[in-house]
Amino acid sequence: MSTPSPLDFDLVVLGGGSGGLAGAFRAAQHGARVALLEPGELGGTCVNVGCVPKKAMWLASELAERIELASRLGFDVADKPRLDWPAFIASRQRYIHGIHASYLRRLDAAGIALLPARGRLRDAHTVECENGTRLRAKHVLLATGSSPRRPDVPGAELAGISDDFFALCDAPERVALVGGGYISVELAGVLQALGSRVDIYARSPRLLGHADAELVERLQENYRQQGIGLHFGYRLAAIEGEPGELRLRDADGHAGDAYAQVILAVGRGANTAGIGLEEAGVELDADGNIVVDAFQRTSLPHVVAVGDVTGQVTLTPVAIAAARRAMDRVFGGRADAKLDYDDIPTVIFAHPPLAAVGLTEAQARERHGDDVHVYRSTFRPMLQALADRSQHSLFKLVCVGAERRVAGIHLLGEGADEILQGFAVALKKGLTLADLHDTVAIHPTSAEEVVLMR
Ligand SMILES: Cc1cc2nc3c(=O)[nH]c(=O)nc-3n(C[C@H](O)[C@H](O)[C@H](O)COP(=O)(O)OP(=O)(O)OC[C@H]3O[C@@H](n4cnc5c(N)ncnc54)[C@H](O)[C@@H]3O)c2cc1C
Ligand SMILES: NC(=O)c1ccc[n+]([C@@H]2O[C@H](COP(=O)([O-])OP(=O)(O)OC[C@H]3O[C@@H](n4cnc5c(N)ncnc54)[C@H](O)[C@@H]3O)[C@@H](O)[C@H]2O)c1
Questions:
Q1: Is 141 in the pocket of ligand 1 (CB under 6 A)?
Q2: Which partner for 355 in 155, 252, 325, 416 could form a disulfide, CB atoms 3.0-4.6 Å apart?
């Protein structure tokens, strides 16, 4: 038997983002010899140009709103407070550098070989680095993530993408966001609260097509009240002008206002091109996502894929959970380990946040017909009421069957982002309306509305 060379591994991972790192750490815990290839910053999209800097900006914008509330409530806030962006961004980036450093320490401690290189799949057991070095592995984990799409219209290259938002050093005076999904809604709320005048141009008839229509209706009202312009059914034909003064032209030839910044948020595409996947025998779907089965197995034996590159629910905790389970199966002797993709909770960090788990009312009616029972609570959180602000919260339960099993929980309002997690556990375990009613409320909170709905 030949002795293994230093280039032989039990696992080679392509991508040091949420899924790749989680998979590498879990495999190493099971005793696997692991190499991880990452040409960019550790942490991938989430840490560098996604969840983390986004949440930091969202927190800043929440503070801006709170300062305004405070002044309404009698605090002496001399002038209209302005955010010192460079100072805030320095704090944000310091926080992110701390995450990089922590990953490096953990990789080192786990004995994982980190190679700062782009990888290419040669066959089921061979990965080639950019410099031509070939690594041999028993198993390969593909976690190369996704990148923002640009619409195929003239001038699209003049506009920014979400990555560019994180390079801003001030709030641009006027901003257009193209797209009506997660990113558009989140960035619009942040920028408007930090001093920009924002317009959203969505192709769809409403924002957030996957979310519960009633909550989205309420969020849209909030956004209009905050001064965000909402343009639905918009068909973008071109982007024109000079940097700093850009205009959108629609399919009827109408050119609108000038914007200092246009940000495209029309979805993301899997990073599967040019890395040898199809040549090696990894099947892709029509959108370029890696096709995987319930165990994250690709069409090529010994090659698994997780996260955005599979086009499955594209959220960080999903990539992490799928990677850990796949590695438990491959290296941990848990043959049945796989992620259940049902009832994954999610939060859209809008203003206020929208948190959801399970079926929307429309999905429940499609699945269960008339046997759907909806409970809702509309209320003003105490701080909003004290400041005589009109922002209301809307909480909604979607129940099915005679036993009123809770099939969906939808929360729009202050604190919704922090309230949902615990209720998501309960929903996953088969929560019923009676269980909620059996639970004593915590008063006075917004969360208590969930157990008081009748
Ligand atoms: C603006 C924004 C906000 C978001 N906010 C949230 C949020 O609040 N909550 C949430 O759950 N999700 C959020 N997401 C989604 C989340 O960031 C992604 O779902 C998550 O990062 C996916 O993890 P991943 O490991 O699949 O890919 P990524 O994190 O993108 O990592 C992929 C890595 O692979 C590397 N790579 C690419 N090609 C190769 C190659 N050939 N060889 C080696 N390495 C390669 C890349 O450099 C990258 O580092 C947000 C996304 C965006 C864009
Ligand atoms: N809080 C979070 O968890 C969070 C935040 C941001 C992003 N994400 C993840 O990242 C993913 C990508 O976000 P996203 O907002 O780019 O995608 P998205 O899929 O949420 O929304 C894309 C939007 O663009 C629209 N669109 C598509 N093509 C268009 C075109 N040519 N012209 C105009 N509009 C067009 C779609 O109708 C849709 O409204 C999300 O689906 C989500 O999974 C999560």
A1: no
A2: 416
